[in-house]
């Protein structure tokens, strides 16, 4: 079992360096591609437009490992950039994209199996195909589970039509990580488009988490290991209102046979809320055993100082005695086992540099191993030596944009 001070970041994302060409049979498919950008960056292109510009942290394992060492992150859980989950594509196209992503993530995990844990993707718009891909992820690729969006074409994941998939997830002992996509309420936002991620994502996640209770999914699959990103969004604030309504409104008592708090505490949540008091609120509501570290590495909105949770319950019903595990396989040596819980503690004495800075690394890819090939990781000393050599030739500044350098300077002070 990992040491008590180890940190596992369950919320990090992957983007391929390249995408395969589209070879399907449909027209006007929003199939992604990559285009060159500034050094160490690529543009993610969708329907001929730049959707997002991403850095080599998204695909280069050596860079990720260097950032993890500087941040003192023991392991990262790798999942696709959510906009690649393809729940909106035709099922055959979605299945093709998911297979490509799953093979890529398995390859990345194989490069550093003691540092990376993989979550794949499934075409949930076709439940039968999704179950087949989940089985492939678990049995053939050895991934820990999959990432899902909050809905499929407006249908929340708690809808009964998705129940067979969640039953399969329990049968395969797969962990599920839920991330918001195409959120509701966009027409009510005033300001820059980026507010979709800032303000609309939390509302979307809260409704998705609630749907797992109000739709009856968690009552039918109580052993499901499912985690929600961004602290569950608005869910912790919705829950008291839902409980009160359940206590005094007959239709809700008929729809939900137990207090909603009992179902809520079956789920897990990352701590990506950027505020220690808010994280304590999550612990108070859901229990310390249900809260895990998450950073959103390597994107701009990431928490550059991952927090820690300690093993101390904060009151009655905190869940400190739970034995369920979110992590891969639910085994005693699971790095995401509740015994690995860590307290939220900023490293004031040793502030971490901003991940994603690419500090001390080159921008070229290191050799990849196929998913079924020999597994190994580059020794930490070799990574450090390579970092020093790259620093000496000025490669650091080349791989960092001005905004990132300003952020790094602020953190150092």
By DSSP, the count of extended strands is 13
Write down the overall mean pLDDT: 80
DSSP helical segment count:
13
Taken as a percent bin, the fraction of beta residues is: 5-15%
Biggest sheet strand order reads 1-5-6-7-10-11-12-13
* Order of SSEs: EEEEHEHEHEEEHEHHEHHHEHEHHH
Low-confidence stretches: 310-324, 329-398, 400-413
Overall geometry comes to: globular
Secondary structure class reads: alpha/beta
Give the % helix.
25-40%
Distance from N terminus to C terminus (CA atoms, Å) equals: 36 Å
Please give the oligomerization state of what you see. single chain
- Rg, rounded, reads 21 Å
Q: What does the main sheet amount to? A: 8 strands, parallel
List keywords for this structure.
single chain; 8-stranded parallel beta sheet; 413 residues; 13 strands; disordered C terminus
